[in-house]
Design goal:
This protein has 76 residues and is an alpha+beta fold. The chain has a domain at 17-64. It contains 1 helix and 3 strands. It has one helix at residues 29-42; strands at residues 16-22, 46-51, 58-64. Strand 2 and strand 3 (58-64) form a beta hairpin. 4% of the residues are buried. Mean pLDDT is 80; it is low at 1-8.
Amino acid sequence: MLDHGDPKEGRPRGRYRPEYVRVSEETDPQAQLQDILASAEAKEWNPVGVAGGLPDGGMVLFWDTRRPSFGRTDSV
């Protein structure tokens, strides 16, 4: 389920976040996407989907913004 967020804030809210990416022809596409993945990894976001083939050459990356728990709970 996609949560479009609060229009007043202009930012998505909730666990999942879509991010529109337009690959620039002026830079190496692989390097550009690697930078995006590294930035998300620093925030501990995990990719959960990609929608590509947009008319302008862009794509939408879908991120799970919840920090991985690896089965742990906060009640320990």
